[in-house]
Amino acid sequence: MDKAKIRSMLRCVIVLAVIALCSGLLLGAFNILTYVDPLQSTYERFAADTGAKFSKMTDDTGKTYGDGSVVYYAVSDDGVYHAFLAEGKGGYGGSVQLYAYVKDGKIDKIVVGENSETFLNKLEEADFYSNFTGKEIASLSVLDTDAVSGATKSSTAVKNAVNAVVEYYKESVGGENNG
Amino acid sequence: MDKQKAKETLLGGLLKNNPTFVLVLGTCPTIAMTTSLSQAFAMGIATTFVLIFSNLFVSLLRNVIPDKVRIPCYIVIISTFVIIVQMVMRRYLPDLYSTMQAFIALIVVNCIILARAESFASCNKPLYSMLDGVSMGLGFTAALCLIGIVREFFAGGAFAGIKIPGFPAMEGVGASAFGFIVFGCLMALFNFVIQKVNEKKERMKKQVLPLSDGKVGTMKEAA
Fold it and tell me: Which residues of A touch B103 (CB under 8 A)?
């Protein structure tokens, strides 16, 4: 076998491997610098969206609904806000993270979190979230809501997340309040 | 450092070789991220950061990277800086990050960055390559902001998120099709202005002036 050819191939492999290794080390260093405790960042997000204080997660193990949408739950320290972090499955780029806040049995606010959807802005343009905000949870039928044209899969992921929140609330929170 | 070359490199990306209006590169983020000025600006700055550092490292390693694996090496370098941008945005600008997440990740395949790494940084010194990154990045940012201002004004009746009183929002105008129309119109206007400026410069060069010795000559000879 041609030694020069092998040497050239080896050089290519070594250079690429060294660059990848250096890249990994640099990213590791940046990860240490920019790391945020996911639980702490969730509390901060809840607090920023509602103006209330959250110091513990009521349910940090989460419950799974429908096709795999997961919901985590916390109550504000003053007991006014019920905050939910939901991951809705079925989007075009995977799952859509959604923060939903319930006050007095109504969905007070919905804020979209991390996602890989490229058409989520269409939902905002179409005022899609107003199908849920300000509505009584007990009378909400989320899955019957029409999807936004041109963003059907993103709409589905958001609907799945909101539906999981509604299910969770009806099952665990609404019952407690009623009781 | 050659001052003339540095000046040409620095101004090239802003005007003569503007990546958006002249080279027509990076059209996908140009249309997707220009629905508002804030998003356009953030996308431009993120791309500028990646351009500067990927150009710098490609230039530093240009004599080490074998030709056969240059593209995978460039992609590793570019994606490293894109992930750094993602980490920083996730930590310090979570709201903006959640709306732009999908497009920030796509900077890896933005053809402006790969094109500059391949055509400029791989055959120029690190300092010039960084200047090229700054120039191309700022040219891209300026173009995105310009398109963002026009689209936000017509689609949302706003400027930088501030509603303009008495101006109605035209919702359909926010669609991508209108984005292409705005992009095309601004591109035509930009190239028209650049052409007129160049023509004026040429005319000035050829203009005949009286010289000190009583003869006539061009501006260059008079100088």
Answer: 118
